[in-house]
Each structure stands twice: as C-alpha cells, then as structure tokens.
Design a protein that fits this description.
342 residues; 2 domains; eight-stranded mixed sheet; four-stranded antiparallel sheet; 12 helices; binds iron/sulfur cluster; iron-sulfur; 4Fe4S_Fe_S_CS; metal-binding
Length: 342
C-alpha cells in the first residue's frame, strides 16, 4: 500500500484543496461532548478531537427519511430530486465506522441490491482518521480497530504529521492533485507510526470475547437475562438509530392534503419498537420488550454471523453511551458468558 506523509500544519490546506472532488463533510462539535457529521464551509469547522459522533456515517447512505418516489394524478410516478449524485468527501471516519460501512455494503449489496444506497456510496470519498479509544470502545474485541480497506485515504497521527495510507486509485488522484503538500515517509515516521500503533493497542480498557458467542447465545436462549433486560428497556429504539450497522427501515405512503398526490417514504425503523413485528390481523410476534431486546442481540451476534460470517457489531460504544436505561452491550455479553459460574 502506498504511504505518504502530510504535515499537520498542511491539513486544512489539503482539505480546502479537495473542493473540486465534492462537498466536504466532517465531525463538528455540537456541544461539549456531542459531535455530528455535517457539511462544513471551511476545514477549520471540523473537530479533530471527535471520537464518536451521535449518528454514524450510515446517515449519508441510508437516510433517516428518504423519498423513494412521488406520485400524482396528473404526472404519475416521478423519481424525486435526490442527492443521489451529490459528491461528498467524508473526512474523519474512524476504523470502526469504516467497518460499519463495509457491513452495510454487504447487506445492501445482497440479493436485492439497493441502488439508492450504492449511488450515494459511489459518490462518497472516505478519508479515514485514527483515534484513541475511551472506556466505551471495544472495537479491538470485534476486530474492527484497524482496517486495510474501505477508505480512499486514511490518516494516522504520528506527532507533527499524519502518515497517509492510500487505499484507492481515487485516493491516489487526490494525493497527486495536492502533491506539493505531501512528502515521502522516512525512518523517523515509520518508528512514530509503530509507537502510535502500540500505544493505541495498549489503550483499550474493555475486552470481550466473541469467539464462540453464537454457541453461548444458543445455550442462553431461554435465559432470564432477556426478561431482566426487557424490564429495564424503554423501547425507545435509540440503540438502533445510533448503531452504524443497524439498517432496518419501514416503507410508508404519505398522501398530500389534495388526496391526489403524495410520496413513498422509507424511514429508519427499530426492532425495539413495539409494532416492529406487528402483522396484518393484529398479531405481534414480539409483543414484550424482553423478546425484542433478545431479538436485537441474537440478530447482531448470532444470525448475522450465520449469514455473513461476522457479527454486525463494530464495537463503537454508541449504544452504550446513548441508552437512557443504562443497558450496556458489553455487560450483557459478559454476563451471558459468565452465567453458571457466578
Ligand atoms: S437504547 Fe436502551 S432503552 Fe432504548 S431501546 Fe435500546 S436498549 Fe432499550
Ligand atoms: S451494537 Fe452498539 S457497540 Fe455495536 S456497532 Fe452497534 S452501536 Fe456500536
């Protein structure tokens, strides 16, 4: 893989020079500890100390509310004026979130390929940025603390510079376009990168073991843990909304007041919502909260492994930080594994 060096003092000049490749988006501080990916007018607006945005980058590719088409008596069906072809540069995406995007690629590229999703993916340049874990990160346990692909460029902090890995030919074009800002890496940079890598590995405070978790979960299918969690869970769906790999959506037709026109929307949905498994005729397959939270855990840690060979959790910690009922995925999985030993 091609690697070059970018001095930190040149970062904003580099980002400003990307204008011709698309609109620049990155994490922006909303409150003391709240960050959100959004379009920026100038690179200075980007918060480089952001570890975890409220919503992950999935919001760019599968929108919270997305118009699929509009319809009217006069004009029939019309494809909406979409942002499908807007080119964006997504700066500051950490390794766990890049893995989140890779998981969504698997899901939306399956049997029924989602062209809305892939149109947006094709138009997004991903510039990754390394990070230091906090007490909620467990991406090292999920094997998503490092990525070799899924980005065009990836920047790792090596002191006064970034070591830049070039992941695609488009990334290479970008470097060539702004080549005066880059330098070749030397021995000092190689050593600095290895020190940074070791420091990062040693900074993880949380470790969970996922090796035989699907089997453990099968054994604990009838565990009282699920009911205990159900008693705490508020069914608010926050954990699904903030998760970089949750992708469920609902499709609804919305009629305008003239009753002659409207639109078909798809909206993020959550398996924690009470009516998620409600079917015609009024039966709800998961009417109680315990069965719904069990379903979420089984889908992410059991069913997804069976289907795609990996869990659909990238260890970002968002669901733990955001849960108003203080339900921690790490605690749940640790408890499941230790049950019977207590
Ligand atoms: S965020 Fe917490 S309370 Fe809300 S649905 Fe998820 S587990 Fe339940
Ligand atoms: S389940 Fe929680 S920790 Fe895992 S990827 Fe989703 S939000 Fe992040």
């Amino acid at each position: 893989m091609k690697m070059v060096k970018l001095q930190k003092k040149n970062l904003n000049a580099f980002l400003a020079g990307l204008e011709k490749f698309g609109d620049l988006h990155g994490p922006v501080r909303r409150d003391t500890n709240d960050f959100a990916f959004q379009k920026v007018d100038a690179p200075e607006q980007i918060a480089h100390d952001c570890l975890r945005t409220i919503l992950p980058p999935k919001k760019y590719f599968t929108k919270p509310v997305d118009t699929m088409f509009t319809f009217s008596e006069a004009e029939g069906y019309r494809a909406p004026d979409k942002d499908l072809h807007t080119k964006i540069i997504l700066f500051g995406v950490h390794p766990c979130d890049i893995h989140g995007i890779k998981i969504l690629d698997l899901v939306f590229g399956g049997q029924y390929r989602d062209e809305y999703y892939f149109a947006r993916r094709r138009n997004a340049i991903v510039v990754g940025l390394d990070c230091m874990p906090d007490e909620y990160c467990f991406c090292r346990s999920t094997g998503t603390d490092f990525t070799e692909d899924g980005f065009d460029l990836f920047l790792s902090d090596i002191g006064s510079s970034y070591l830049v890995r070039v992941g695609t030919s488009l990334g290479d074009d970008i470097v060539l376009e702004t080549s005066t800002l880059f330098q070749e890496i030397g021995d000092t940079d190689r050593r600095a990168y290895k020190r940074r890598s070791a420091q990062r590995i040693n900074s993880f405070e949380v470790e969970i073991h996922l090796e035989d978790l699907p089997e453990i979960m099968d054994l604990e299918y009838e565990s009282r843990i699920w009911q205990e969690l159900g008693d705490k869970c508020l069914s608010c769906g926050t954990c699904s909304m903030v998760c970089p790999t949750c992708y469920c959506y609902d499709v609804v037709d919305q009629l305008n007041l003239d009753a002659k026109s409207g639109s078909r929307l798809r909206r993020w949905d959550s398996c924690l919502f009470k009516d998620y498994a409600l079917v015609a005729g009024g039966h709800n397959f998961r009417a109680d909260r315990g069965s719904r939270i069990k379903n979420r855990y089984f889908h992410k840690q059991r069913g997804f492994v069976a289907q795609f060979g990996r869990p659909s959790c990238v260890g970002c910690g968002r669901c733990i930080v955001s849960c108003p009922a203080a339900i921690s995925l790490v605690d749940v999985l640790t408890k499941l594994r230790s049950r019977g030993n207590e």
